[in-house]
Amino acid sequence: MKLRSTSLGNVHAFLFAALRTVSCAALLALYGLSLASAQTAKAPAPGKTPAKTENQLSSPAVEAKVRALLAKMTLEEKIGQLVQYSAGAATGPTSGRTDDKDMIRKGQIGSLFNVTGARATNELQHIAVDESRLRIPLIFGLDVIHGFRTTFPLNLGLAATWDPEIVRKASRIAALEASAAGVRWTFSPMVDIARDARWGRISEGSGEDPFLGSAMADAYVRGYQGEKLEAPDSVVACAKHYVGYGAAEGGRDYNSTEISEHSLREYYLPPFHAAEKAGAGTFMSAFNALNGIPASANPFTIKQILKKEWGFEGFVVSDWTSVSEVMAHGIALDGATAARKALLAGVDMDMQSNLYHQNLLKLVQSGKVPQAAIDDAVRRILRVKFAMGLFAHPYTEENLEASAMLRPESRAAAKAAATKSIVLLRNEAVSGAPLLPLSANVSSLALIGPLADDASNMIGSWGALGRGQDAVTLRLALTQKLGESRVHYAKGGEILTASEGDISAAVSAAQNSDTAILALGEDAPSMTGEAAARAQLGLPGRQQELLEKVAATGKPLVLVLFTGRPLTLPWAFEHVPAVLAAWYPGVEAGNALTDLLFGEAAPSGHLPLSWPRSVGQEPLYYNQLNTGRPASDPDHPAEKGEAKYVSRYIDEKNTPQFPFGFGLTYTSFRYGATSASAKEIPVSALRQALQEKGRKVVTVSSEITNTGSRAGETMAQLYVRLDGTSIAMPVRMLKGFQPVMLAPSETRKLTFDVDAEKFAFWGAENRSGVEPAHVTLWIAPSSAEGQSTTLDITER
Ligand code: NOJ
């Protein structure tokens, strides 16, 4: 039951042919605490299976069909269902097999991925359904990560909306498009909690917080799978990478992780559990070793927690060759042992390793793998195939495919999502007023930078079928708005290289304009996503020099950052008056940005992670423990502070550049005192309330005022701290969030109804529950602000 650990062995890095991405939508009303609270229920006591509300994979009808089919299958045919290959572009080491079609005919493959298009998938499906003995359809998978053809902001940007409804709509649109192209299974959502911006895949998830991450996980799954899994336009979700992948040591991709059971349960597992509770049909086991046991051969996390405790009824697919990587991790000397360990740990489908196909038959015949283990895996895969209606409608309507793509309403949703994903980090006064929004009467604008007119980068690192040519760049949108003559474009060099001439042309463009906009950042395919860890987090190439030289012209400067992670840019955050974190906004990038730059829309994105000042601060996250020697002034490095022997750097502040939850807009807000409706709650009352899901135990409120002259939205965040507990808990934990739109000078009392779950945690006795504690509560615009109140959970 205890987790193990060891350092990672030889994990091969593979060349990752970057695909491209998708999606999203409008906003909704309040995302209240009651909905949010449903996302983060703590793990139930071992053995207890929580009830699922919808998208049940298993029903008496489905189980009867599974049983009947299983009874007809030979052992070879059963093993065939557990085998998956890429039939298209390789996104990892290849299997070396070219006989996919023959294998389908023989019933030796259960799933193919990286093949798209109604015609291509139908052709392969016909082989499975018409030519294999038992006519079991294939399930076609693909990485549909932030859109299929309509590219939405990359996932970190989607998380920055703090709007699960946007994520749900983006995923729904992605599902409509993908299913029209024969893809009924996506390897998404990635729900890995990530605290280290060096890790390239921080771009693919929802950031560092389990509460926000759980809300997003739920939204992705509901969006992909729709109301009914059996609908032809629903796409089965895959929560990945199970589990701990985001904690890769040093931020180096595929690296090992050491996570205590408490941290696993409190931080890393909740978004997976939220995905499972939302009905996710599949999970993907991760590449990393978790406390010495490869995640793809880890019976504790897969068999015990996922399948037994949570009652997961779907199937687990390995990540790309992660079954064979069990050998490189060092716990198997040969492929047969790797296959046995992975299968017995609960990995039902082998992505690309070829090891289940090669070894399982002999392993069963020799008694090393029980037939029951094979049956369980097959049952899970068939269950998903039946539940999604694949047997009833295995083919895709070829004549509906084209019209499903990039519809005007999908583009509109992508624009709404992009607009909400962009975070205004800085907006200092220039000539007495904040630089943004710009006036549409500006006589000329210099538009500078390698990302100002790079359409394919707007798509991000996972593009599915997204195309650069569909994307609107900032240059295109600005030119459409202001006309050619008012936009002085100078590329200023490439992302990684620039000549003196490139830089001086950019400086001249700025000198000849009223204001300059710089579009700088990372190259999405090569610097973000998988196998794109960075040890330096500055601007690549000569972009910092370009920035400083353009700034030296003295022109008002707006910096738009296109990145898959926060960059450490202390100079920019001191000298550039306006900075926007745009991530990679998708097909509507330029239009969304132009609306924000000129105030036709107001920024409303908030950081889903802590933005570091220096690489040396990583891993950096707001929900840290207090330590025994907290710095009383964490905003100063040691030489400026009072005491030496406290937890801080001698050469850097402890605080982030921008805290989790932070985001400016074009007005300002005042948060009043936080108050709670109770001063004491007996622990027995909380325990009782835990049985009644969602029952309010205390109301927490604050008055919020719009102190500016524009209407605007703030994201009110509820934070909780527990002291006096059996195990140390973080200095703050997000437990709710609500967007609040206020007219100029308007004040509104905002209330969070808090249920008992918000006080529950995985305690020192290795179970979830509530304990007597001193509680601090904040309603705040970020994790570093707000006025607190307290209450006590008393013994009794
Ligand atoms: C490897 C990646 O880790 C995973 O996220 C992806 O789904 C698979 N390759 C399939 O492309």
Describe this protein's structure.
The chain is α/β, with parallel strands linked by helices and 796 residues long. It has 25 helices and 28 strands. The strands form eight sheets. Strands 11-18-17-16-14-15 form a six-stranded mixed beta sheet, with helices on both faces. A five-stranded parallel beta sheet has the order 4-3-2-1-10. The chain has a five-stranded mixed beta sheet with strand order 20-28-27-22-23. β1, α4 and β2 form a beta-alpha-beta unit. The N terminus is likely disordered. It binds 1-deoxynojirimycin.
Average pLDDT over all residues: 92
Bound molecule kinds, no repeats: 1-deoxynojirimycin
Helix content: 25-40%
The value of Rg in angstroms is 26 Å
The span between the termini is 31 Å
Q: Major sheet, described briefly?
A: 6 strands, mixed
Strand-pairing-aware structural class: alpha/beta
- Poorly predicted parts: 1-51
Q: Quick summary of this structure?
A:
This protein is α/β, with parallel strands linked by helices. The strands form eight sheets. A six-stranded mixed β-sheet has the order 11-18-17-16-14-15, with helices on both faces. Strands 4-3-2-1-10 form a five-stranded parallel β-sheet. The radius of gyration is 26 Å and the shape is globular.
